[in-house]
Amino acid sequence: MLLVEEADYNLLGRDLIVALGINLIVRNSQIMVSIYKLTREDEDKINPKVWHTGKEAGKLVMEPISIEIERPEDPIRIRQYPIPLEGRRGLKPIIEDLIRKGILEPLKKPDGSYRLVQDLREVNKRTRSRYPVVPNPYTLLSKVPPQHQWFSVVDLKDAFWACPLAKESRDIFAFEWEDPKTGRKQQLRSTKLPQGFTESPNLFGQALEKILQAFSTPPRIQIIQYVDDLLLSGEDEVEVREATIKLLNFLGEKGLRVSKGKLQFVEPEVKYPGHLISKGSRRLSPERIAGILSLPPPPSKREIRKLLGLLGYCRLRIERYTQTVKFLYEKLTEGHNKKWTKEDDDKLEKLKLKLASIPALSLPSLEKPFHLYVNVEKGVAHGVLVQEWGGVKRPVAYLSKMLDPVSHGWPVCIQAIAATAILLEESRNLTFGGKLIVCTPHAVRNELNQKDEKWLTDSRILKYEAILIDSDDLTLEVLLTTEAAIRTKERRWIHASKIKGPVDEPKEWTITSEPGDTKLTLKRGLGGNELGRPKWSKKHTQDHT
Asked: By its UniProt entry, which InterPro entries does this protein fall under (predicted)?
């Protein structure tokens, strides 16, 4: 076989490679081989009706779904957009295929006249939304045990069309179709849950979740659902293979169809959803990163919101995310005459560079304690959630949140209370009640015990106490940052970069940005073992290294 990177096709040996289902991936001047592992022996164990063939649509045996809209007595009257002849010719076989499969059906009034056309976007605006149960993609992958090393991904084909619509709800999705050959106009309506409907992911997700409750998941196998994509994981390759085959047969019996070409069958690394998942690690797929990096500067506020939506998908992976994208939020609050500047271009390029160098994050383990390092700077709470693996602390997520406007006027030591509480609540979505050790450069619990009513209202004190004091699984530690220096009565100035991990609380110690600057001195209280209230000192040290 001959491989030429610059060539569109590598002809020598290509037919055999395709026949064997082998993918060759060139990465960092190295060739990676990916082999389609669904063997003939495996296929013989799978009911063939689960595969999507294009001849028929899936069909779930379930109660038809009813859709409620606001002001049903007021019809949604939207004129049908004109479709050119060439476009109608291309759509004709698709429309006919959907009618043949029963996904669409002709619609007429009892008197034979046609109904008014309805725009699906207008239907979305008028639909009474149900409580969303679609999993949060930011925290979904945290449920994958880090010791799992074999994965399968099952992609359900045209899953929404497997859910029947109640007859009284079908008229909501009516539209007009003109046959390009005969010129005959006809009203069609959907009999199944339509694609593009804002409630479809939520409604199908609930239906699939209910169906999966009847599936007997093997003890050492984890199944995660995100809308119509299923991820199976386990430690043993054979167990994952058997569980995947069992799940495919179960889905086929329930009336769902699976895309055979998109099936990722028992792989050490899989893509799900938009992430590359492997043992103990998850990272954004190169395609998703490349898509964001290729975006041009947003010309309007609408495009800025789209960009923020894409970046928000990566927020757990971007250190100091809130501070980094702050300029984009500021552009949204500016007047209409404000234009995109060269300075904005530079900030966007720096943001893209951060995206290009995003590290792989560790999958959280509930069997190990979490460490949350928190700091506050310019009214923004920054933090990193880590766990120790092999003696090295690996990041699980980068967290950042803007403090509310009221807390911007507080002293930094009081802001640290709010920052710690905010990021602690954020981290709960990833720790799932596991033991958490919070490390900050401030004695936040001691500050909170002072009940400083000058800055904190009673409601805030109660809120922060519930989060920071009344948590049995929480440990608070004072940690020196790498920018600080420490002095005690027993030692001279020592830069914090030489100090590893939390330090024991001394009788007296001082934090300063640099030796010689204004210092923050903390002393033990006279009546107890806790550190007293921090006091600012204007003294300059002369004794330092």
From this structure: DNA/RNA_pol_sf, Rev_trsase/Diguanyl_cyclase, RT_dom, RT_RNaseH_2, Viral_Replic_Matur_Polypro
Give CA–CA dist 414/407, Å, rounded: 8
pLDDT at 159: 86
Cβ-based neighbours of 18, under 8 Å, separated by 6 or more: none
Average pLDDT of 332-360?
80
Opening angle at CA 499, ends 498 and 501, nearest 5:
140
- Asked if residues 146 and 362 have their Cβ atoms less than 8 Å apart, the reply is yes
The two three-digit tokens of residue 139, written as one number:
């925290």
Question: From CA 113, how far away is CA 101, in angstroms rounded?
Answer: 25
The CA-atom distances, in angstroms, between 409 and each of 235, 379, 456 are 51, 9, 11
Identify the burial level of 185 via C-beta atoms within 10 angstroms of its C-beta, where 0-12 means exposed, 13-18 middle and 19 or more buried: exposed
The model's pTM = 0.66
**Cα 245 from Cα 45, distance rounded (Å):** 7
Confidence bin at 388 (pLDDT 50/70/90): confident
For the CA atoms of 254, 258, 263, 269, the dihedral, rounded to the nearest 10 degrees, stands at: -50
Of these ranges, 26-35, 54-63, 374-383, 480-489, the one predicted with the greatest mean pLDDT is 374-383
Task: With beta carbons less than 8 A apart as the criterion, state whether 396 and 280 touch.
Answer: no
Residues for the chain: how many in total? 545
Amino acid at 19: A
- Token pair of 92 as six digits: 């004709």
Q: How far apart are CA 416 and CA 423, in angstroms?
A: 10
H or E stretch at 510: strand 508-511
pLDDT for 274-285, tens place per residue? 888 999 888 888
Three-state SS for 292-347 is HHCCCCCCCHHHHHHHHHHHHCCHHHCCCHHHHCHHHHHHHHCCCCCCCCHHHHHH
What ranges make up the beta strands (E) of 121-174?
A: 150-155
Confidence of residue 245 (pLDDT cuts 50, 70, 90): very high
**Cβ neighbours around 475 below 10 Å, total:** 13
Strand pairing report for 436-440 and 474-478: parallel
Q: Which domains are assigned to the chain?
A: 1-35 (no CATH), 284-356 (no CATH), 361-478 (3.10.20.370), 485-537 (no CATH)
CB 102 within 8 A of CB 165: no
Q: Using one digit for the tens of pLDDT, what is the confidence trace for 399-426? A: 989 999 888 888 888 898 999 999 999 8
Q: Compute φ and ψ for 291, nearest 5 degrees.
A: -65, -40
Q: At what angle do helices 286-293 and 301-312 cross, to 10 degrees?
A: 160
**In the structure, what pLDDT confidence band is assigned to residue 75 with cuts at 50, 70 and 90?**
low
Residue 244 has pLDDT above 90, yes or no: yes
Q: What count of other Cβ atoms lies within 10 Å of the Cβ of residue 66?
A: 10
Long-range contacts of 40-47 (CB under 8 A, 24+ apart): 42/241, 42/245, 42/265, 45/245, 45/249, 46/245, 46/248, 46/249, 46/252, 47/248, 47/249, 47/252, 47/253
